[in-house]
Design a protein that fits this description.
The chain has 641 residues and is of the alpha/beta class.
Length: 641
């Protein structure tokens, strides 16, 4: 509401709740990165400054110029969008409404599809009726009329084979199958909208799954009868405890047993370099000699670096050091509001290049084996292409762990990345200065809702059992934030526009080409990866003109990479395609690559060894006075909340 401004006669103030602000910032429209200006154009740009507190009121002069009016309109829109985003955990209602409208309108004008769905519904009703008759006549002997998908373990317990629960779960699966047919294959609906509608329908069905309803779940009913309801009492206590921890921003139960520097991230090392974005850790050697080429690991900054240095028994860093490699690790700073304008170029320059400069001083005249994980791998790919363009040959090899360079088929994560959705996220990040950890985790949990949400609900709240905390689970709860500009550039230029794969991604004002990379590459994909599907990771074959060794391992995005030797039920496939050999499609590659049992770590270590020189004397820790030892590993950045 507009009121007179007592400090400026003739002016006015728009109050939006709360007390009057002392500062009177002249608001200018802030251009979101990637919308109308090129990457890196933020330097010197006068964008709308971030509020130090939620927007209370906007002060206007007596006569508001048109530019001010336009700026105010943008501010008001963004404030509304940011407020809505906090309620929806960053998911855009407009994006979902747009998808459903597309589906509903096309379904309404498709009588043939409607008739087909009606016939399918009648047939499924007949199937379940016939199944009911069979199970009544031959209890416990009738074969189910529909089986769950291989990854669906909700109905695997033997109690689900007993009447009437067998009919209950089969009815649910038939209904789930019908909705899949209803949402897919409708001509005229865009593929993006079709996938969004199918995904959303699946989420609603999962909520109503009989496995989540105590009276319809025979496993819960049996446990309740056996324990006199004590499982539900414990479940209620678990629910209250989880809610209290969530509202007070505390980690999950048991996460406090894993402390950085005490029982995770404990491989001995030193911080040998620090800037405003990274700490560089050099790890102490455990062998008498080391390979001459050091290893630089670039982790993703969406989480803390120590997923690759968890407990001693499953630390990739410790494993590499024990195999005679000098290992350096980047530890990223957890960004705050003040880091809102850090972009992809800052992460390349202050991250990868600054780390390489330090390594070149500590281990002079040696090329470097560079490895990148997830988003860190994408950044490493960008850096390697830019270095190749400039004739910088400091890299001996490039390794990518579950990292994508082509984002056209980036899996179900793309459901949350549309123009509407990115615009919504940008407005939320514009007000905060970053993307919060909770706002990121919600989308990732939805991608694996049966494993991460409903399985947790079943065990913790219905069965009254606390699943034991592991170091990987504790790390997963130790999330970080994402700077406004970097995340916007990442979503727009890589996901939406696919600039990197299509040769439009610019570094220092000029496009880079991944085909310029000539160093040998080792790429790792994981079979059950929802973040970087292995077929998407496999596309590195199409984008580069070098020898590529591709390895496909069992597991998911995190557990597939943390695959220490001796871990049961692990296997992998590996095959090398040289620069001169013809391209293989993923299916042909999978057929030709033989399954090998065990961890993939020894395979990679052997590959690194084959691309390294003969062992040499141990290097020094740091290179004083330019790169002195600053701190003990794991450093200070990893401890920042």
């Amino acid at each position: 509401m507009r009121h007179p401004d007592p400090n400026n006669p003739g002016a006015s103030v728009i109050r939006m709740g709360g007390s009057e602000r002392a500062d009177r910032t002249q608001f200018q429209p802030a251009t979101p990165p990637g919308r109308d200006q090129p990457s890196g154009a933020h330097s010197g740009t006068k964008a709308l400054p971030l509020m130090k507190e939620p927007l209370k009121e906007i002060h206007l002069p007596a006569e508001v110029p048109d530019a001010w009016g336009e700026g105010l309109a943008e501010v008001l829109d963004r404030v509304i969008h940011a407020s809505a985003a906090r309620v929806t955990s960053g998911l855009s209602p407009a994006a979902l409404a747009e998808a459903y409208l597309d589906w509903v309108v096309h379904l309404a004008f498709s009588p043939g599809k409607q008739l087909k769905l009606t016939v399918k519904a009648a047939r499924k009703l007949g199937r379940i009726g016939e199944q009911a008759l069979k199970e009544t006549m031959t209890p416990g002997k009738a074969e189910p009329c529909i089986a769950p998908l291989p990854q669906d373990r909700r109905f695997s317990a033997p109690e689900w084979r007993e009447y009437p629960y067998s009919l209950i779960y089969q009815s649910f699966l038939l209904q789930q199958e019908w909705w899949h047919n209803a949402t897919m294959g409708l001509e005229g609906v865009s593929k993006q909208h079709e996938n969004m509608v199918e995904f959303t329908a699946r989420q609603f069905l999962d909520v109503a799954s009989p496995s989540n309803i105590p009276l319809l779940n025979p496993v819960v009913m049996r446990r309740t009868l056996e324990q006199g309801g004590q499982n539900l009492v414990r479940g209620a206590q678990n629910l209250v405890e989880d809610w209290m921890r969530l509202t007070h921003n505390k980690p999950p139960v048991g996460a406090e047993t894993y402390q950085v520097g005490q029982n995770v991230a404990v491989t001995p090392g030193r911080v040998v370099y620090r800037n405003d974005l990274i700490e560089l850790i050099q790890y102490e050697p455990t062998t008498d000699e080391v390979r001459p080429e050091p290893v630089l690991i670039v982790p993703a900054w969406i989480m803390k670096y120590y997923i690759l240095d968890l407990s001693p028994e499953n630390s990739l860093v410790r494993y590499l050091v024990s195999r005679g490699f000098t290992v350096f690790m980047i530890s990223w700073k957890n960004p705050t509001r003040e880091d809102r304008d850090r972009g992809m170029e800052d992460y390349r320059r202050l991250g990868v290049l600054s780390a390489l400069d330090a390594i070149n001083a500590i281990v002079p005249d040696r090329k470097v084996h560079a490895a990148g994980y997830c988003l860190g791998g994408t950044l490493l790919t960008i850096a390697a292409a830019a270095m190749a363009r400039e004739g910088d040959d400091r890299l001996k090899s490039v390794t990518l762990f579950a990292a994508q360079a082509d984002f056209r088929e980036a899996g179900e994560l793309t459901l949350f990345i549309t123009e509407t959705q990115v615009h919504f996220l940008e407005d939320m990040m514009w007000q905060q200065g970053y993307l919060d950890t909770k706002q990121m985790s919600g989308a990732f949990q939805l991608l694996r809702s049966n494993d991460l949400i409903w399985s947790y609900l079943f065990h913790n709240y219905l069965m009254g059992e606390r699943e034991p905390m592991t170091d990987l689970m504790a790390w997963n709860a130790d999330a970080t934030r994402m700077p406004y500009r970097m995340h916007s550039e990442y979503l727009r230029q890589l996901f939406l526009q696919n600039d990197l794969a299509e040769g439009r991604f610019k570094v220092e004002g000029r496009p880079i080409a991944l085909g310029d990379i000539r160093t040998p590459m080792f790429a790792v994909g994981t079979e059950r990866d929802h973040v970087a599907p292995w077929r998407s990771v496999f596309k590195i074959h199409n984008l580069t003109n070098t020898d590529v060794t591709f390895l496909l391992t069992t597991g998911g995005h995190n557990a597939g990479i943390v695959s220490e030797p001796g871990r049961p039920h692990r296997s992998y496939r590996v095959l090398t395609k040289t620069e001169r050999e013809r391209h293989l499609d993923p299916e042909t590659w999978q057929r030709l690559a033989q399954v090998q049992e065990g961890s993939w770590w020894p395979e990679w270590a052997s590959w690194l060894t084959s691309h390294s020189g003969e062992p040499v004397n141990l290097p020094s820790l740091g290179a004083p006075p330019v790169y002195p030892v600053l701190d003990q590993a794991p450093g200070s950045y990893v401890r920042e909340p």
